[in-house]
Automatic annotation (TrEMBL):
One of its GO terms (biological process) is methylation. It comes from the Eukaryota. This is Peptide chain release factor N(5)-glutamine methyltransferase. GO terms for molecular function: nucleic acid binding; protein methyltransferase activity. Pfam families: PrmA. Keywords: Methyltransferase, S-adenosyl-L-methionine, Transferase. It comes from Buddleja alternifolia. PROSITE patterns: N6_MTASE.
Amino acid sequence: MKSSCFTRASLSSILQPVFPPRSNPGRPVFCSTAVRPKPRTPLYLRPPAFRATFSELQKWHIWAKNKATSVGPTFSDLDNGPDSALLHRELNWLVEDAVENPNLIRACLDDTAPVWLRACLEELYEVWRQRIEERRPFQYVVGCEHWRDLIVSVEEGVLIPRPETEVIVDLVDDALKRNEELRNGGVWADLGTGSGALAIGIARVLGGRVIATDLSPVAVAVASYNVQRYDLQDKIAVREGSWFDPLKDVEGELSGLVSNPPYIPSKDIDGLQAEVCKHEPRLALDGGANGMNDLLRLCNGAASMLRPGGFFAFETNGETQSKILVDYMDAKMKGSFCNTMIMSDFAGIQRFVTGYRT
Ligand SMILES: C[S@@+](CC[C@H](N)C(=O)[O-])C[C@H]1O[C@@H](n2cnc3c(N)ncnc32)[C@H](O)[C@@H]1O
């Protein structure tokens, strides 16, 4: 899972940023008897159970390189999509994940020498065709994304976590360092958890418990799988339901609350890069007419869900949404929150709104 100068963890930055009935309260969903979609095992974790010859693998590799080259600047000119150079890097990563000994691809072996693969050759032909012809995101092809120091499982139906969202973990960490009361534990929530990346990220810096919620059953299944992979079942419970509905048992008691909700204005979605608008779930993207529907709902809910002194961090589309949110808190919800601040992401975009419940 290594990469060259362009790190795999930064791959998702080529995707346009996402400005762009409680089933079993209090318990991790995978401990319940609810039937959930079974998450897909990421390619790099599958056993190398498929045998091919060296010449068959070479033939596939040459075909895949030619397909990547044929794209040229077409996708980047069209919608800021990947160019050939990036697709060639992705192909290297696909080889690293799919071939038991990826160095063999550059070796000089006998044509009939056996190579062991984590997917059969037919699947490798098909997924690379999908990557190029259907613009299926690379992360869905390999079934994972590198995010902070995690490798989270992702698949269709779940948003691929973006690099800018990594900052929320640092914001939580900073809040804990500055505020002794917050360090005393308590329950936190990650609302709209998707793959569970953010819940896992904050659980590892917190002393307390995290409840991660999502309306999407696929997201709940994938987040539960990732929580299990990082052995955090004791710290993170994943619950299915809309925003605060699955959190009635902790109303007014949350020590902290984070969320990266859908915030893209509905009319902008079709103009996004094909990898995003054709393949990522609309439920994860669409924030209504001006993109603010869910942010405002979360803001209203935070006032009743957080305990006094409780911390919140919300991700937004950028400057305008952040400002609308802070103005809303200061004017319409006067007295509910204090120390509201707008914080920037790595690119200097005013992406996050943080503050405390009074
Ligand atoms: C922008 S994605 C963020 C996913 C994840 N937190 C991340 O940063 O990668 C928004 C998430 O909110 C979820 N969502 C949308 N509407 C919801 C609702 N009414 N209640 C709970 N979750 C919802 C979506 O399924 C999606 O997983």
